[in-house]
Every structure is written in C-alpha cells, then in structure tokens.
C-alpha cells in the first residue's frame, strides 16, 4: 500500500499505476508526500513530490526531475 499525504486530504492506493492516476487527477498544482513501506525491513520512506498543472510529477526537495515510479515500485513491500 502507498499513501498520498496532503494536509488531511490523504489517500491510500494499492498500486503505482493507481498512485500516478490519483496524483495526476486529484492533486494537480500541489506539493504532496508519498509514504510507503520499503524493502527489506518495512521501514517507512517518504518521497516529496510536486504535481504541476499539466500533471507532471517531479521531486520537490532535490530537483532531480521526474519521479521514477518503476524504482519506487521495486523498493516497496
């Protein structure tokens, strides 16, 4: 499970595809965090992202460009 957190407007999703769809439709123009349990021990990880008005999802804090959702999917439990 992945969680989108946005000041009480939080949402849980079951897949990375569902995560991307939710971000692009419901969180445009916002800065949100994605929280998930990471391999191998289940520690919570947080990814801070910005969703621009066009629905492009980028890292908020380090300016490295678009979020690699394939990597996120591989790292999560």
From TrEMBL:
Per its record, how is this protein called by name?
Answer: Uncharacterized protein
């Amino acid at each position: 499970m992945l969680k989108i957190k946005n000041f009480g407007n939080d949402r849980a999703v079951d897949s990375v595809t569902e995560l991307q769809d939710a971000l692009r439709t419901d969180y445009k123009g916002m800065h949100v965090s994605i929280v998930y349990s990471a391999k191998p021990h289940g520690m919570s990880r947080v990814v801070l992202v910005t969703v621009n008005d066009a629905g492009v999802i980028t890292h908020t804090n380090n300016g490295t460009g678009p979020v690699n959702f394939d990597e996120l999917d591989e790292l999560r439990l």
